[in-house]
Amino acid sequence: MPVVRVAVSLTEAELASAAAMLSTLVAGGAALGWVDPPSPDEVRDLLLGLAADDDAVLVVALEDGELAGLAYWRRYARPTHRPHADVEKVAVAPAWQGRGIGRLLMTALITAAREAGVEVLTLDLRGDNLRAAALYESLGFRQYGRLDRFVAVGDQRWDKLLYALDLRVPRASYTQVSTAR
Question: The domain spanning residue 40 has which CATH number?
C-alpha cells in the first residue's frame, strides 16, 4: 500500500510523474479543471507553489518512488472565508484507481485540515463522477448544492455538485493519519 505524506518538497522524479499522471487523466476526460492536458511546467509551478504555501496542503501517495496520486486543499483568500478551505484536486493514477488511494488522500487532507484549524472543508465535482461522490459522502461530506449543466467542455455539459464537511463537529467516519510537516 502506498505511503501518503504531506509534501513540503517534491523531487524532480515526483514532479515528472505528477505531470505525466495529470496529463494522462485529463487526456482521458478526467474532470480536474483542465480542458487540455497541462504542460509539465504548469504542473511543476502548481505543485511547488502548493508545497511552499502556508495556506495550502498538498498530499501525495507514493509506492516505491511511483506516484499513485495527489490531492490538495487551499484556504479561501477572501477574509470572511479564511477559516475554511477548498479541496481543489484529487487525482489517482489509472493503475492505482479502485485500490483505496482516493480514500487515503482524502483522509490525509481531512486530518491536515483539522490540524490547521479549518472549520469547513468544501469541494466540488462533476455530476457524472459517482465514485468520487460516494467516497466523499462516506467520509462525511454532505451535498449542499447543484448547478445544473454548469461544467462545459465543448458542447458537453455536466452538473456541478457542491459538498462540505463541517470540521467543527467531531466525526468518526474516517481514520486519522498523521500529517506532521
Answer: 3.40.630.30
Domain total of the chain: 1
The answer to whether residue 132 is domain-embedded is no
Contact 160, 147 (CB under 8 A): yes
Joined together, the cell numbers standing for residue 21 give 499522471
The pTM of this model reads 0.90
Cα angle: 127, vertex 132, 137; to 5 degrees: 95
Owning domain of residue 26: 3-119
Query: Does residue 172 carry a pLDDT above 70?
Result: no
The residues pairing with 7 across neighbouring beta strands, listed in sequence order, are: none
Q: What angle is formed at CA 121 by the lines to CA 179 and CA 17, rounded to 5 degrees? A: 55
Alpha-carbon distance of 153 to 158, in angstroms, equals 9
